[in-house]
Specification:
By secondary structure, the protein is mainly beta. It has no helices and 39 strands.
Length: 549
């Protein structure tokens, strides 16, 4: 075709029919041509020589795309180290994959011989969220919606982090110990591991709003909550729990609170401690009933068994109860081993030294006074007594046991009383009794046998008079003497009457029942018995003669 010795620059746009001349660099040095119209239909574009690269440059000579020998492609770099290497001199650079169709889902795919993954930058079919999709298994592994919530195993996260799988588990793994948050179909979510779990606000004494869950084998730092996984124990304020729940500290150690209604503590299958507001109720059900629950007043510690719910009038109130067996055990062995397991009930007052201590028995249906009997200890003058008092004759003020008295100030008014010095006194109890045998003439005294409240000796005389002296004086002379006797050698019965009554002595004269004559007591064959009973004076409402304190 010849040779071109001169050329000039193109001054106008190139037409498709224009020709491009290319010199043959071989020995022929021929000039060959090709049109711009069919330039794009060439099979390939090859580098200048074997081992060289191919590049595209802009008009300023800056390389835009560089294909390195071996196939690495560089965009903005002439030294691509990877199959696609993009560099930019600016502080920010972007790669854009744009799908302008409605609900488009531009994506990148990654695949090897067994696994295929797809990353959807904006998945138009799932709310335009970011999606990492396991194309091999056909599952969405990670999804971020447009609100920033992250789903693991779900494309519809409802929380900032929403984990949804068959058995979800979160593992925080350390070099020696790990913390798990796991859940399964049977046991539900929970923290667990093989070592002691500590939960603390501001770990290591740091003042912060952070809460830490961590494992520690040291015992120097006591944390607010520690879970001993090996022994299934929880420690609060201790790193060595010795029970399923072990709490140590001072002040209020446990607070159970409910915003409405009542709060309960359940023990096993049957047993509740119920918080009823002003009082506690203990029973086998959380439904509180007066007939089934023990009640404890919070403000004063009063106890009620069977009483009206929430009503506490006395320190201990028992109603509608039947005690079939009461067994109180003591380890007192002061009287020997046989006394071990002795039983007793102890009532102790906290008032004055002379205050009463008593038990009152009553019946709610009895009128006018539901308080029927009272027994206990009381003081009169300088002596202590145990008394039994009948309270049912007249109504007590307010029908209130607090207004009941064992003794109204007059000792003889107490139904039954026992002095600390000995002796029991009541309306139907003998004040004194004894058995006496006569003596031979010239012996004016005789010994009393089997006696009560009588001195050991008594005086006798030939005129049939027996004079006895009381160990404890009587309160008055309003008493009755019943005396009988027997003369053994003649088989004659005797009868006696009080010839002289005193508060410290009593003279009894004995007569034969056959003719009423006085019998001499100076005879060994004579035996006598007597009983003295106390009673009212001139009416049935006065004081009763009893032992004088």
């Amino acid at each position: 075709m010849g040779k071109i010795n001169e050329y000039s620059a193109i001054s106008r746009p190139i037409n498709v029919s224009d020709m491009l001349f290319i010199a043959d660099a071989s020995a022929s040095n021929e000039i060959k041509s090709i049109t711009f119209a069919n330039l794009h239909s060439t099979a390939y574009v090859r580098g200048a020589q074997t081992g060289s690269a191919l590049s595209l440059q802009d008009g300023d000579g800056d390389t835009a795309i560089y294909i390195k020998d071996g196939g690495n492609v560089g965009v903005g770099t002439v030294t691509p180290d990877y199959k696609l290497d993009i560099e930019a001199s600016a502080s920010t650079s972007s790669v854009r994959i744009f799908a302008n169709a409605v609900n488009g889902y531009p994506n990148l795919q990654f695949e090897n011989d067994v696994q295929k993954w797809s990353i959807y930058g904006s998945h138009g079919l799932i709310g335009d969220g970011f999606d990492i999709y396991d194309a091999t298994q056909g599952k969405h592994r990670l999804f971020i919606n447009t609100s920033g919530s992250v789903g693991l195993g779900t494309t519809g996260p409802t929380q900032r982090l929403h984990l949804k799988t068959g058995t979800p588990q979160i593992l925080v793994e350390g070099s020696s110990y790990s913390v798990y948050l796991a859940s399964d179909s049977s046991s539900g979510p929970g923290l667990g591991a093989l070592n002691n779990l500590h939960i603390q606000h501001g770990h290591g004494g740091i003042s912060s709003r952070s809460t830490y869950f961590y494992y520690d084998t040291t015992s120097g730092q006591v944390t607010p909550l520690m879970v001993d996984s090996a022994n299934r124990r929880v420690g609060m304020g201790t790193n060595s729990p010795s029970a399923p729940l072990h709490i140590e500290g001072t002040g209020d150690l446990l607070l159970l609170n409910t915003t409405t209604g009542v709060s309960n503590i359940k023990f096993g299958y049957y047993g509740y401690w119920v918080n009823q507001g002003t009082y506690f109720a203990i029973g086998e059900s959380s439904s509180v009933s007066a007939s089934t629950h023990l009640q404890i007043n919070k403000s004063n510690g009063f106890l009620s068994i069977g009483g009206t719910l929430g009503t506490f009038t006395f320190p201990l109130e028992i109603k509608n109860a039947k005690v079939t067996t009461t067994k109180l055990n003591s380890t007192n062995t002061s009287k020997g081993a046989s006394n071990s397991g002795a039983a007793y009930i102890y009532l102790e007052g906290s008032g004055a030294a002379t205050a009463d201590s008593a038990i009152i028995f009553g019946n709610a249906t009895t009128s006018p006074n539901s308080c029927r009997w009272m027994c206990g200890q009381f003081w009169h003058s300088t002596e202590n007594y145990f008394g039994i008092e009948f309270l049912g004759d007249a109504a007590i003020a307010g029908n209130n046991p607090d207004n009941a008295d064992l003794n109204d100030g007059t000792l003889n008014n107490t139904t039954v009383y026992i002095s600390q010095k000995g002796g029991i006194t009541s309306q139907n109890t003998a004040l004194a009794f004894g058995h006496i045998k006569g003596r031979a003439a010239g012996t004016p005294t005789t010994t009393i046998i089997g006696s009560y409240n009588i001195t050991n000796s008594a005086t006798i005389d030939a005129s049939g008079v027996l004079t006895v002296s009381f160990t404890k004086d009587l309160t008055s002379t309003n008493y009755t003497v019943i005396a009988t006797g027997y003369i053994a050698d003649t088989d004659i019965p005797l009868i006696g009457r009080a010839s002289t009554k005193g508060t410290n002595t009593c003279a009894i004269t004995f007569r034969k029942t056959t003719d009423g004559t006085v019998v001499t007591l100076l005879d060994d064959d004579v035996e006598m018995d007597f009983v003295i009973y106390g009673g009212f004076g001139t009416s049935a409402t006065g004081a009763i003669t009893k032992l004088d304190p």
